[in-house]
Structure formats: C-alpha cells, structure tokens
Amino acid sequence: MAHLPRLAVTRTAKLATLPLGYAGRTALGLGKRAFGRPAELIAAEVQARTAEQIFTVLGELKGGAMKLGQLLSVLESALPPAIVEPYRAALTRLQDSAPAMPSATVHRVLAQDFGDGWREHFAAFDDTPAASASIGQVHRAVWADGRPVAVKVQYPGAARALRTDLRQVGRVAKLFGVLLPGLDVKAFVQELQERVEEELDYGLEAEAWHAFAEAYEGDPDFAIPPVVAASEHVIVTEWLDGVPLSRVIAEGTQEERDRAALHLVRFSFSAPTRCGLLHGDPHPGNFKITQDGRLGVLDFGAVKRLPGGHPAAIGPLLRHGAAGDIEGVAEVFRREGVIREGVEVDLAALASFVGPYAEPIAVPEFAFTRDWMRERGLYMFSDGSSIFRMLNVPPDYVVSFRVLTAGYGILSQLAAKAPFRAEAERWIPGFADQD
User: Fold this and answer.
1) What φ, ψ does residue 101 adopt, rounded to 5°?
2) I need a labelling partner for 427 at 20 to 30 A (CA). Which of 2, 125, 276, 330 fits?
3) Which residue, 279, 203, 196, is CA-closest to 236?
C-alpha cells in the first residue's frame, strides 16, 4: 500500500539523511577549497545543494516535515540575496505540491468516510490530484447536483506521521540554521505540535470553513467557497478558480501585487472582528486571485478561535508601537500582566522587538521589500523572540504576532505598497483610539 510514509523507522531514516548529507557536502566543499577554490563560491554551492536536499526530503515525507517547510517558505524573503534564488525554487515547491498518493488509496478513504457507494455523491471524479499539501491532497470533481467541487482527502496515517515528523524535525533543528541563522526552529516545532490535533480533524476544519464562508458571503473583496460535505478525513467544497498567489508573487504587475497585499491584510485584520476567527496558516498556497480580482481563501485547518475578536491589548499595543512610544507599549504589557509586577524590562530591547510589527502601520502607506524583511523581519524570529518568551504572553497574543509575522513575509515577497494603516484603524479595536 503506497501512501504517506508512516513507519517511525522509515521516516526517521529519511530525516536522518539531512544532517548526513549536509555534513558530506561540507566536507566536499572543504576539499575543493584546499585546491584553491574561493570560500564564497564553495559556501554558495553547499547552501544551494543543502536547500535542494532539505526540501526534497520534506516534500516526500509530507506530514509535519512538509508543514515546517511550508512555514519556512513564507520566510524566504528574509534569505540572504546571494543564495535566495536556489532556496526560492526549492521552497516554493512546498507551498502547494507534493508526491501524490495512489488513486486506490484515495478511493479507500472516500469509501471509509462516505460508504461503499461514495461515487453516488459525484457526477464525476478526477483521480489525478489538482494539488497536494502537508496532510492531504485535493481532487477536482462534480457533485451530484452538477456543482464543480474540490475534494480534500487526508493521507492515511497522517496523524501518526505528523507526530513522528515533528519529533524528528526537532532533533535536526540545528540544520535549518543553514536557511535562516538565528531562527528558533524548536519554538516553531513546539507550536506545530500543539496545532496538530486540530489540523487533523477535518470535521473541525469544516466548521471553521463554514463560519468564514458565511461571514464573507457576497463580499466584494473575498471569495471563500462554501462547504458542501465533510467527514473525519474528507472535506468537499465548491470549486474556486483563480490564479495562485505564488504566480502573482513571481509574475504579477505592481498593481496586482499591491491589490493582493491590501486584501491579505484586510482579511487577516477583519476576520477576528467579523467571525471571531483568525486564519492561522498564511502561506501563498492557501490563496488565489479570482478573475474578478477578489482574494480567494482556502484551507482552514489552522484557525485560532477568538470569540471576543482581537485580544483587547493588540490595538493599543500596536498604536503605541507605531508612535514609537515604547513606554506606552510597556504600560499596556503591565496592565495585561505580560510584564509581571516588579519585573524590569530592557525598553530598548522591547522597542527592537515591537518595532518591526508596528512599522508598516506607522505611516499612511508602507512599501514592503525583501531588504526590509531581511533587516527587520527576521528579528521577530531570532533574537527578539527570546525577549518575547521572557514575558508572560497569553497564547492569543502569541498566535496574533506569529500570523502577523508570516503575513509580513508574504507582503515582502509581493514587494507591495498599500495603505495598511487604514486597515488597522478600521478593523483592530483600540488602534485608532487615544488614551
């Protein structure tokens, strides 16, 4: 039976090839260097080949390993210029593609969840997957009533594979320093482990998907296909045509990039207010641009439930940060108990951490660039994150900042300029207020 590799020994062996392969190429590079080749050229070769092996293995494993790769792919705009091209090619492949599982396996999952007569639900079903992701793949089909639909089928063994992957990836976390020096991969892995169970529950995802679709039904800016049917391992939604956001990043005009970026920010900022949910997996593979210019949103497995909307302190916190008022930031943190009574915090360090989050909404219009992400954005994941972890930060705030950071990574890939501050004023309570 060919499907998602799930035996611990097999998956561990695959992941083990990463550090071994890297060490071998490093030794080869040192050997070449001894024969007079420039150190910079050797380093570039090692980095490019390491990237190719890392993401080939992650893609083959799918599961948690690929999920980590997708997360890293959002941050490719922070990679050093000398090596960004080979990394970008390897990373982009992880956003919406992976080796497909056989049609017989797909049929078995459908029969398991919809019964032996599962084909009666469909007028047509395409066995060739239209897209593959970390824990499932998508097939085009036609529902019995004639509607074109997308059928998302979870890989058999996905639960076991995810848990195994995340344990093993944690053990080789240092290797990812080749990609982004200073990146706290272990913290990412820990967060992914906490989200695993929720992402595996397609019934729970279908509920969130329905809530988003209902809240944004008829919206002129967004297209969220409604859920048609769902089970533990299968979600059926109406099909959504559109241009993948990754293509807009690669080939779009400046106008298309700016419009996509504005819609991405509007969606992220508005969702907690409009439906009490935050889309927690902003990477290009989850977005399309429809023919009429709307932002199509897909995949609601990673969703943070915020029934009260944005955390109350987020607006004042970003407002003080945007104004450069670090004392105000500290005061908000003290009121919320994030800075415990009697604890002294290095305000300069706090300013360095909060600054990159607030800078894009400190001015009427802001232009994201890869240089900006390299110079400021990466701080959110490296030295600055250690300051953040020292504070008593509620989980809702951690998720909000993580999603904001990932979103900034996409906006930097788009190299977009737009009035993001107005979106914060419109959708984040407390941002436009005065104390």
Assistant:
1) -90, 150
2) 330
3) 203
**Residue 410 CB contacts under 8 Å (≥ 6 apart), including other chains:** 74, 245, 249, 261, 264, 282, 283, 284
- Token pair 């982004």 is found at 180
**Does 17 or 187 have the greater pLDDT score?**
187
- Tens digits of residue pLDDT in 26-66: 433 434 444 444 545 545 565 556 555 555 555 555 555 55
Q: Which helix (H) or strand (E) holds 319?
A: helix 314-322
Q: 396 near 404, Cβ under 8 Å?
A: no
Pairing of strands 148-154, 234-238: antiparallel
Cβ(434)–Cβ(275) below 8 Å: no
The average pLDDT across 423-429 equals 96
User: Bridge partners of 230?
Assistant: 235
What pLDDT was estimated at residue 3? Answer: 45
Q: What is the CATH topology of the domain spanning 103-158+197-238?
A: Phosphorylase Kinase; domain 1 (3.30.200)
C-alpha–C-alpha distance, residues 84 and 139, integer Å: 32
Q: What is the Cα–Cα distance from 250 to 88, expressed in whole angstroms? A: 10
Nearest to 416 by CA among 202, 240, 257, 303: 257
CB 394 within 8 A of CB 338: yes
> What is the Cα Rg of the chain in Å?
22
φ/ψ (deg, to 5) at 30: -65, -35
For residues 65 and 188, what is the distance between their CA atoms, to the nearest angstrom? Answer: 12
Kindly report the number of other CB atoms within 10 A of residue 105's CB atom: 18
Identify the CA nearest to 180 among candidates 420, 366, 379. 379
What is the pairing mode between strands 277-279 and 303-305?
A: antiparallel
∠ at Cα 78 (75, 84), nearest 5°? 95
Concatenated DSSP letters for 259-279? HHHHHHHHHHHHHHHHHSEEE
Tell me, rounded to whole angstroms, the distance of Cα 299 from its chain centroid.
11
Cα end-to-end distance, the chain, whole Å = 63
What are the domain boundaries of the chain?
Answer: 8-95+168-182, 103-158+197-238, 314-427
Angle of CA points 173, 178, 182, to nearest 5°: 70
